[in-house]
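Project outcomes to date are best conveyed with an example. Our students and postdoctoral researchers have been running inverse folding experiments weekly, and each run begins with a structure described purely in tokens. The record below, which covers 153 residues, was selected by the lab manager from last quarter's runs and is presented without edits.
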């Protein structure tokens, strides 16, 4: 969702707007790294459960391999003006072992249940350690909304 509203928001408003976007948006850019091949970035669908983002990808993808080796991940919603960036650690669950709540929430949002699909799928649960959000240059100051897993303010 593209926004061009230049009105500076306080921490409470930014947090409210960011949580609302996490509730309603569909896509997130997922950035991982391989120690020899370097950065890797892909867009994935996600479901926000209020604490963590749930995504799903093929079990043999570079994203899944990278996160098994190094679970640190960066995520970004796809809007270059109304920026939301998250950093966290990913837990990887084979489709047969995913917690029911994560799988059910993902399936309800997208109408697709990877547990019943062909091929090995891996669910990714990313619990953010930090969240940054800003809308234009005027909000660069004070852009940290979450630090060490705790929402500020």
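After processing, the design step wrote out the following sequence:
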């Amino acid at each position: 969702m593209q926004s061009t509203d230049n009105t500076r928001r306080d921490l409470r408003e930014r947090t409210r707007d960011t949580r609302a976007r996490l509730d309603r948006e569909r896509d997130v850019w997922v950035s991982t790294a391989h120690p020899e091949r370097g950065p890797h970035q892909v867009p994935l669908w996600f479901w926000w459960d209020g604490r963590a983002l749930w995504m799903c990808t093929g079990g043999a993808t570079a994203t899944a391999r990278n996160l098994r080796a190094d679970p640190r991940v960066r995520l970004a919603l796809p809007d270059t003006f109304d920026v939301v960036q998250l950093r966290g650690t990913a837990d990887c669950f084979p489709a047969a072992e995913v917690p029911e709540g994560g799988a059910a929430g993902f399936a309800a949002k997208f109408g697709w249940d990877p547990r019943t699909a062909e091929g090995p799928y891996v669910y990714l649960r990313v619990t953010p350690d930090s969240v940054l959000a800003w809308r234009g240059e005027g909000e660069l100051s004070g852009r940290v909304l979450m630090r060490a897993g705790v929402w500020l303010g």
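The mean pLDDT is 94. The first helix runs from residue 11 to 24. The training component of this project remains on track.
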